[in-house]
Design brief:
The complex is a heterodimer of chains A (about 675) and B (about 425).
Chain A: H1 7-32, H2 35-44, E1 45-50, E2 57-58, E3 64-76, H3 87-94, H4 98-111, E4 117-123, H5 125-134, E5 141-150, H6 157-160, E6 163-165, H7 168-173, E7 183-185, H8 188-192, H9 194-197, E8 202-208, E9 214-217, E10 233-235, H10 239-248, E11 254-260, E12 265-272, H11 285-294, H12 303-306, H13 316-326, E13 335-337, E14 340-343, E15 346-349, E16 357-359, H14 361-367, H15 370-381, H16 389-401, H17 424-431, H18 455-467, E17 470-472, E18 477-480, E19 493-495, H19 503-515, E20 530-536, E21 544-551, E22 558-564, H20 574-587, H21 599-604, H22 611-644, H23 649-676
Parallel strand pairs in A: 2-10
Antiparallel strand pairs in A: 1-8, 2-3, 3-4, 3-5, 6-7, 8-9, 10-18, 11-12, 11-22, 13-16, 14-15, 17-19, 20-21, 21-22
Helix pairs in contact in A: 10-20, 13-15, 14-19, 22-23
Chain B: H1 2-8, H2 16-36, H3 51-71, H4 74-98, E1 100-102, E2 105-112, E3 115-117, H5 119-135, H6 145-163, H7 168-173, H8 178-183, H9 188-206, H10 209-226, H11 231-258, H12 261-270, H13 281-292, H14 305-308, H15 320-352, H16 357-381, H17 399-417
Antiparallel strand pairs in B: 1-2, 2-3
Helix pairs in contact in B: 2-3, 2-15, 3-17, 4-5, 4-6, 5-6, 5-16, 5-17, 9-11, 10-11, 13-15, 15-16, 16-17
Classes of the chains: A alpha+beta (about 675), B mainly alpha (about 425).
Chain lengths: ~675, ~425
């Protein structure tokens, strides 16, 4: 003891105050502040996304249309690139140059130094095998297995579509489901059934040390999820039929759509020119894509649902059926064809000016008498007097639309066109308030004028005739998943409002078309096919060859529409091609036609239009389309406006003027817009 | 009487509570070193290729040394203090010539066989002993300038040599001996002034010097006004103000000229002047993450991710507390700190029960050095003091450190066991 004894308490006090400061700080960082736990987890956790295999697609008989093949993506985690290594060796192994290497690396760092970045995509199994042995030499680099699509038969490209990397918009729209570098269906069935095909991603959360070396699963795998493969799709296509169809359409522009009338299942879906879907995967995809876009024949244009043609004579059976249902004419009423039908002050030429003489309905269909159908059409439209032209035309239009024309058929594919059945307002707009008569629009009777239909709509039309009055919604995917789920809407009959009894005279006529009419050279031995040839007018060149048919006559198994562009009459090209498809489907083989034409003759024929001319036409067509679109737009706009307004004439006239101005304005803007591009 | 006691047992009067605390801390150290370098598959507990295997040998060796110390004659210890001090000084000079440079500090002498000696560790012991010897002399009063200068010299000499290495951490440890001087009669103003200067140093870095000076002037003016009749007070305050202002201006100079760049950076990071989570700030940040992520109960023994997956630097030596904080949580941290405080307060208690001033002064030296190490080491891992590389006593991996603290403590236990006698 000495006199400074009490200082022990001062020293003890100072020690305690300091140590309590330390404890308070410890309390704060260990108990109060939660951020360190989060940081610790982000230090040690590495989340790997496990990609599920995309669902395969089969044909109707279970044959594979699309399957998956393993490929490997090289990933880099910039944070883990913590020591120098032989960059040149890596570049060589994955086939890039040094500049590309640095460019990617900087991009990866910009994205996030802690997140894996896809450094090089889609290494083949061979490249991967070589790389894997050396991978430990490249810190921060890893390889993630993925799958890509392969198409063993290289067919049905427009049906299958392709997948591509997601765009920023896709990511935004998916509410964060997709991440940069993910794949998504871009077109075709891949797009339409994306959510079914993509499956469910899994994640694997691993622990890594400060050098990025994996140290086992995090929290014993509590955060891990197993990827679930995408569902299998069974398509309605018949691989054999599809292959034959694509062979027949080689070097031609056009399409084939064949439907099973008793189910609405599409059996054959050819869009020509086509391409090998295998070109849309792998590392050359970008180059191939560019080539395809630059191809003037537009292989990406899905002709069965996007191309719209005037149906031409193939429309006539429909005209006849409506007339019968409306009681306008009886099947046996005789009409005398002079070779020229006079409607008002217009002449409709018929049969190249040669008189058909007396025709009844069956003969009119069989010989495609323009006069007969013009007469029938005029009778319908003028039925309650000229003053009621608009109402009558509307009624006719409604009847036509019940057959699936002028509106989308809701095919289970993206980007379907509507086709067109003109509205009374459309004519009002052109001929100004009632300035049109049945004679003005008589060309509709023979499928010309403003009528437009897609090949799919034409084929569906044949289904309706084959079924005698109803159709199932056409579709390309028959069943989803291993349990073969079928969408309910595909099992419902859609009636078109024509009594089944009215079909026989029309079908008689159609049978005659093939038996001894325009398509007699396409007669299939032993099979009664009912069809109708058509010639769709093409203002830029030779007409489009159209043929629609179904077979056999009783209990039909197949309905078909074939369009061969720039090939003249339906009987010459479309009909024989259709007959081969029908024969193949019904008998399993193809024989030569009576005239000696074989499949190979058609397959080898080149009907591609002259490139220079075609390109010019295309440009014109585009302009015309845009004008039409603008017209339709302005008409639609006008229509909605006018409903609200009173019917007072003065107001209506004022409206029309403004609508006219709008129309002009929008056309100009579209035209200049195109030029500017 | 003394000889009788010693004949009864070598361990007569040994303070077993202190020994127990020592053993517990060593055991905690060993287990946490094992956790820090743990790799699954390393099943052998005593594998001399690993840190924990080596530490096991160090602990055994330390226990042998402890027993040897208990067997020594107490009076030798005081008698040999000057010789020991001189030997250590020579070693400190030697290390500057032939020492091995590890981590920027030329602090180790190679002993062969993979073992290295760190003289600066033993300098603490030697200084405490010589200081005790000097201050316990007759007619020595710290309050007298001459004695104070002598005591300051005993402390300052090894500091200068260690600063040459340059081992800032070990140098600063000697500053803790101010508590010893205080206990022996040094004016409390020294503590106040030391505290004031630390505060001024920090403030001068954080704030504009002008504001600090204005504040100081205002305070001085108030005090002067209040005691305006007291001439002496006025003089002291004005001189004090002058010194403070001079110090504030010299801070920038000290900062840029005296301290090394990494030291200034560490201080900057501590004070939040700069953040550099990839460079100098990386260690502290990762250390805080490890400790902070332990939460209340910790992640469990051998389940610390941050320490085991080498996010934390030097996890078995200077940053060993991260393993404790991460795997044992707040509860474990409090326990370890509690054990240390228990030991330190026990040492102070031992100090105050001595008849011999030598033992008392020495005990306060032990308590101060231990306390400084604990606070600076743990404070560094949780980011309240700058990163200074000094070990956590008994727990950090390292033979020299463990041996030094063992000797430091067991010399005290030996001296204490003889508290009834006169040296």
């Amino acid at each position: 003891m000495n006199k400074f004894f009490e200082r022990r308490y001062v020293i003890t006090g100072i020690f305690l105050v300091i140590i309590f400061t330390v404890l308070a700080r410890l309390y704060y960082i260990q108990i109060v502040d939660d951020k360190y736990e989060i940081y610790a987890n982000s230090n040690v956790r590495r989340t790997t996304i496990l990609y599920p295999a995309r669902g395969p697609i089969l044909d109707r008989n279970g044959k594979i249309l699309v399957q998956n093949e393993p490929i490997y993506d090289v990933m880099v985690n910039p944070k883990d690139v913590n020591r120098p290594f032989d960059t040149l060796l890596l570049c060589k192994m994955i086939g890039i140059d040094k500049e590309g290497f640095y460019k990617r690396f900087i991009k990866a760092q910009k994205q996030s130094p802690a997140k894996p970045f896809i450094f090089e995509k889609q290494l083949s199994v061979q490249l991967y095998a070589a790389l894997q042995e050396k991978l430990f030499e490249f810190p921060g680099f890893s390889v993630v297995p993925r799958t890509i699509r392969t198409y063993p038969d290289s067919i049905a490209a427009q049906f299958l579509g392709f997948i591509g990397e997601v765009t920023d918009r896709d990511i935004k729209r998916s509410n964060g489901y997709y991440r940069l570098g993910d794949y998504i269906g871009v077109t075709g069935v891949e797009k339409a059934y994306e959510t079914v095909l993509r499956g469910q991603r899994g994640v694997q959360v691993q622990m890594v040390d400060s050098k990025g070396v994996p140290k086992g699963s995090f929290a014993n795998g509590a955060l891990d999820t197993v990827p679930r493969s995408g569902e299998r799709l069974t398509s309605s296509l018949d691989i054999e039929l599809q292959r034959l169809g694509e062979k027949l359409m080689k070097n031609k522009l056009g399409s084939i759509v064949a439907i099973e009338p008793s189910s609405g299942e599409i059996l054959c879906y050819v869009s020509s020119p086509t391409y090998d879907p295998n070109l849309m995967v792998g590392r050359q995809r970008g180059n191939n894509l560019a080539k395809m876009y630059n191809n003037p024949y537009k292989p990406f244009f899905i002709r069965p649902i996007q191309a719209q043609y005037p149906p031409g004579s193939s429309f006539k059976p429909l005209s006849a059926l409506i007339a019968l249902q409306e009681g306008i004419i009886s099947p046996n009423e005789i009409f005398y064809c002079t070779g020229h039908y006079k409607a008002g002050n217009r002449y409709v030429p018929c049969n190249k000016g040669e008189a058909h003489g007396n025709v009844n309905m069956a003969r009119a269909v069989a010989e495609s008498c323009n006069g007969y159908f013009s007469m029938v059409f005029q009778r319908i439209v003028d039925r309650y007097g000229v003053k009621n032209t608009e109402a009558n035309f509307k009624a006719w239009r409604n009847n036509v639309m019940k057959f699936g024309l002028g509106a989308r058929l809701d095919l289970d594919m993206p980007a379907e066109s509507r086709g067109n059945v003109p509205t009374p307002l459309y004519y009002d707009n052109i001929y100004h308030n009632g300035g049109w008569r049945s004679s003005t629009i008589v060309s509709l009777a023979i499928g010309q004028g403003e009528l437009l239909a897609t090949p799919l709509q034409l084929a569906n039309l044949e289904c309706i005739i084959a079924n005698r009055g109803f159709f199932y919604k056409p579709h390309l995917i028959k069943a989803i998943g291993t349990e073969n789920v079928i969408k309910k809407e595909y099992t419902e009959k859609n009636y078109v409002g024509i009594d089944s009894g009215y079909f026989e005279p029309v079908i008689n006529g159609m049978q005659q078309v093939v038996e001894n009419g325009t398509a007699r050279r396409s007669k299939i031995p032993g099979i009664i096919m009912c069809g109708k040839t058509g010639t769709a007018q093409n203002p830029h060149g030779e007409d489009h060859s159209v043929f629609v048919a179904f077979a056999p006559r009783d209990n039909p198994k197949i309905a078909i529409a074939v369009v061969v562009e720039n090939s003249g009459e339906g009987a010459h090209w479309a009909a024989p091609i259709a007959s081969f498809i029908v024969e193949k489907y019904l008998t399993g083989k193809v024989t030569a036609r009576e005239a000696g034409y074989t499949v190979d003759y058609f397959a080898n024929a080149n009907r591609l239009p002259d490139l220079a001319l075609y390109a010019k036409d295309l440009a014109k067509e585009r302009r015309r389309d845009s004008i039409r679109a603008a017209k339709i737009d302005s008409v639609r706009k006008f229509k909605t406006d006018s409903i609200k307004k009173a019917k007072a004439d003065s107001i209506k006239k004022a409206k029309q003027e403004t609508a006219g101005n709008n129309k002009a304005g929008s056309i100009i803007s579209i035209l200049t817009g195109r030029r500017a591009r | 009487m003394m000889s009788n006691q010693q004949q009864r047992s070598f361990f007569f009067n040994v303070d077993w509570l202190t020994v127990l605390l020592y053993l517990v801390l060593c055991a905690i150290g060993w287990f946490n070193i094992r956790a820090a370098v743990y790799a699954p598959g390393h099943s052998s507990l005593i594998d001399t290729s690993t840190n924990y295997g080596k530490q096991f040998i160090f602990i055994c060796a330390s226990l042998v040394v402890a027993i040897v110390i208990l067997l020594l004659e107490s009076r030798f210890i005081a008698a040999l203090a000057p010789a020991f001090y001189v030997i250590v000084l020579l070693l400190l000079i030697l290390v500057l010539i032939i020492g091995r440079n590890v981590g920027g500090n030329q602090a180790w002498i190679n002993m062969g066989g993979g073992f290295r000696l760190q003289p600066s560790e033993f300098a603490k012991l030697a200084t405490c002993l010589l200081l005790a010897r000097y201050l316990s002399g007759t007619n020595i009063r710290v309050t007298e300038p001459k004695s104070f200068m002598m005591a300051a010299g005993i402390i300052g000499l090894p500091m200068l040599l260690i600063l040459r290495q340059p081992d800032m951490g070990s140098t600063l440890v000697f500053c803790s001996l101010i508590f010893v001087l205080y206990r022996e009669g040094l004016s409390p103003y020294f503590l106040v002034i030391a505290g004031l200067f630390i505060a001024l140093f920090v403030m001068a870095l954080l704030y504009n010097p002008l504001y600090i000076i204005l504040t100081l002037v205002a305070i001085t003016a108030l005090v002067v006004y209040w005691g305006r009749r007291n001439r002496k007070l006025i003089t002291t305050m004005v001189i004090g103000l002058g010194i403070c202002i001079a110090f504030i201006f010299s801070v920038k100079f000290i900062y840029s000229k005296v301290l090394k760049q990494h030291q200034t950076e560490r201080i900057n990071i501590l004070l939040g002047i700069t953040t550099d989570l990839r460079g100098e700030g990386y260690n502290v940040n990762q250390s805080k993450i490890a400790i902070g992520s332990g939460k209340l109960w910790g992640k469990g023994y051998l389940h610390g991710t941050q320490t085991q997956y080498s996010f934390v630097p030097a996890p078995s030596t200077d940053f060993i507390f991260c393993t404790i904080g991460e795997e044992w949580g707040f509860v474990g941290s409090i326990t370890v700190i509690g054990l240390f405080m228990f030991l330190i307060l026990r040492v102070i208690y031992i100090a105050e029960r001595q008849r011999s001033p030598f033992t008392r002064v020495y005990a306060y030296g032990v308590a101060s050095v231990l306390f400084f190490h604990v606070v600076i080491n743990i404070g560094m891992t949780i980011g309240i003091v700058p990163v200074i590389g000094i070990p956590l006593p008994f727990i950090s991996y390292g033979g020299s450190s463990l041996l030094n603290f063992t000797i430091l403590l067991f010399v005290l236990i030996k001296l204490d066991s003889n508290r009834m006698g006169i040296i």
